[in-house]
Write a structure and sequence with these properties.
about 220 residues; five-stranded antiparallel β-sheet; 2 helices
Amino acid sequence: MTTRLALPELARARTRNMRGFSLVQMVTVAAVVVILTAVALPVFLSASRPNRLRNDANAMANLVIMARMRASMEFAHTQVVCTTAPTSGPPYCQLQSWPYQGTAWNNDNQKVYLSAGVSFAIPASSSVSTYPPNQNPTPYQGDSESTAGSPAIIFNSRGLPIDSGNNLKSDYALYLEDQTGAAIAIAVNTTGRPDVYAFGNDSVACPKPALPCFSVLREY
């Protein structure tokens, strides 16, 4: 025989089953979430820093490749010119072109901004065991004759790297560094091809160096 609950008892049973969380339970859950976030956030940020640095370096290398291709396709001089310390916003590099028989550099829409914590910086010779090819013993950002704070990598109409005096270059590089001291270089060889090198505190590229080593991360 099935016993049926009276309507008031049935309503009370449903009310008990539909009760929400108590204030104490909600405060406890919120406290646990805050603690887990405080523990996990530094670990996440630490793990993401190398990726930010490498992603910026790859984006810079792609911008250099675009400048080189644009120079050959448009029979123009092109350059990747960088603003290392802007008055506002993060540091960035921009593609510019000087058309055939032109009179000035024209800005292109292509820009690469550095991520938070990444900046332009050359590691001191006392802190690295070697620099990119042809950069030793006195490396510098971009063109040594470029305006201070605006290093540039310049290409002629054949897509070959040149300096501001139209002389062929073999020691171009842009150096990036993050907050941990890890550094990356985008070095351009005599043909204009950029390669990405890592050194500094990069435990993957340099597991056991006497000084931080220098290792190719990506070849284009």
